[in-house]
């Protein structure tokens, strides 16, 4: 792995240049004031071949030495009750993991975390729309980033499963006080971190043709940084597009929230952005490692759209078709035209109609509802959708 050196192989590709000169990349630069260059490439490039070695060692010491259910119970106990660091029977890797995650970094500001949490809840159903139609769908445009998804059976499991898992994680890490040690959101960070490690080790063990030189390590630290920029920068940009009211403190809080979640999940904190300017600059460099959509990307996009036709929360097929139409329109509103075309998302009549309705609704809602009411209504709506997904999504199976 040490012999490989990541290069900005796609900086001259048409999809890269179009995104940053005419697409959402241009909007991100103008909005954030970012200065786009490769001057810091040498700082970030090594992370393409680095991963969460602490999490990987825990999986080897715990999950590979007992049944999956027993290992999960062990981790759950340590999450909720902590680790006895003086117990010689406890694997050293577990002590390293929990020493790191129970240690509060010097830069952490709990007041900012709370503001970020409040913004996520205030956003209400807007948040879930953006996560689905901007962050998740937009991520499918990056072919190498999708490789672990494909190899871990994302298409076979279907979009319902991925939506439920993503939503379950997102809701639980963005609630009030969720990230304090031993709390529920903290637990979601640890378990998700170990799922990533488990998946990475399985991919490397079972995939003979994994192309480390070009794809990086599976679920590598640089790709993880880009994923979490989706939860912060892209999420914030989507809120802005839908005219959700955001204060400067909310914005700072959102980046701080996802920096801490990233820290808990094993991403080096020196590559996690503090604001939208840094996030855009970091994202610019990473996108030069990624080719445009491939056939797998198109299959993932189609699976996400067709999930609307399978949802059991709507009784009639015409309701499901209407829901799919609304999401297609939102894809065309939130993503740029070239991204939609690459992903094979069909064009529809009046694609921006629902987005215009949402913008009007948001203007009225944020004008007349108090902040406390915004949080209450938004959080309740998100938790209702999550409950619906958890009732219907297939359960995890491990072998």
TrEMBL record:
Signal peptide positions on this chain: none
Which InterPro entries does the protein's record reference? Lcp-like, MPAB/Lcp_cat_dom
The domain of life for this entry's organism is: Bacteria
- Which positions are tagged coiled coil? none
List each copy of the ER-bound oxygenase mpaB/mpaB'/Rubber oxygenase catalytic domain by range.
Answer: 135-346
Extract one GO molecular function annotation from the record: oxidoreductase activity
Query: A Pfam family this protein belongs to?
Result: MPAB_Lcp_cat
Q: Return the protein name.
A: ER-bound oxygenase mpaB/mpaB'/Rubber oxygenase catalytic domain-containing protein
Supply the source organism for this entry: Soonwooa buanensis
Taxonomy, top ranks, is:
Bacteria, Pseudomonadati, Bacteroidota, Flavobacteriia, Flavobacteriales
């Amino acid at each position: 792995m040490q012999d490989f050196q990541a290069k900005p192989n796609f900086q001259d590709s048409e999809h890269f240049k179009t995104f940053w000169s005419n697409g959402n990349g241009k909007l991100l630069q103008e909005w954030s004031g970012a200065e786009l260059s490769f001057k810091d490439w040498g700082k970030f490039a090594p992370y393409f071949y680095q991963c969460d070695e602490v999490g990987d060692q825990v999986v080897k010491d715990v999950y590979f030495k007992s049944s999956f259910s027993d290992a999960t119970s062990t981790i759950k106990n340590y999450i909720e009750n902590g680790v006895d660091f003086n117990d010689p029977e406890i694997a050293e890797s577990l002590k390293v993991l929990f020493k790191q995650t129970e240690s509060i970094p010097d830069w952490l500001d709990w007041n900012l975390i709370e503001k970020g949490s409040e913004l996520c809840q205030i956003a209400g159903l807007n948040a879930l729309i953006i996560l689905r139609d901007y962050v998740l769908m937009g991520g499918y445009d990056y072919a190498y980033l999708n490789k672990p998804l494909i190899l871990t059976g994302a298409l076979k499991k279907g979009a319902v499963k991925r939506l439920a898992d993503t939503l379950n994680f997102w809701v639980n890490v963005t609630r009030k006080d969720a990230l304090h040690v031993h709390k529920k959101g903290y637990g979601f960070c640890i378990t998700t971190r170990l799922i990533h490690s488990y998946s990475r080790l399985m991919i490397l063990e079972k995939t003979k043709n994994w192309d480390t030189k070009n794809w990086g390590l599976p679920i590598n630290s640089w790709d993880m940084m880009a994923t979490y920029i989706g939860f912060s920068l892209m999420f914030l940009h989507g809120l802005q597009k839908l005219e959700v009211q955001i204060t400067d403190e909310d914005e700072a809080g959102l980046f701080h929230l996802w920096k801490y979640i990233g820290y808990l999940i094993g991403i080096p904190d020196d590559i996690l952005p503090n604001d939208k300017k840094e996030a855009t600059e970091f994202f610019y460099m990473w996108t030069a490692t990624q080719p445009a959509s491939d056939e797998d990307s198109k299959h993932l996009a189609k699976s996400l759209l067709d999930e609307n036709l399978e949802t059991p929360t709507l009784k009639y097929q015409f309701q499901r078709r209407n829901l799919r139409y609304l999401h297609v329109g939102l894809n065309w509103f939130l993503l740029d035209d070239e991204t939609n075309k690459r992903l094979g998302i069909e064009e529809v009549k009046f694609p921006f109609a629902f987005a215009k309705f949402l913008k009007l609704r948001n203007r009225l809602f944020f004008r007349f509802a108090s902040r406390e009411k915004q949080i209450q209504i938004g959080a309740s709506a998100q938790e209702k959708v999550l409950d619906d997904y958890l009732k219907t999504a297939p359960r995890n199976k491990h072998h």
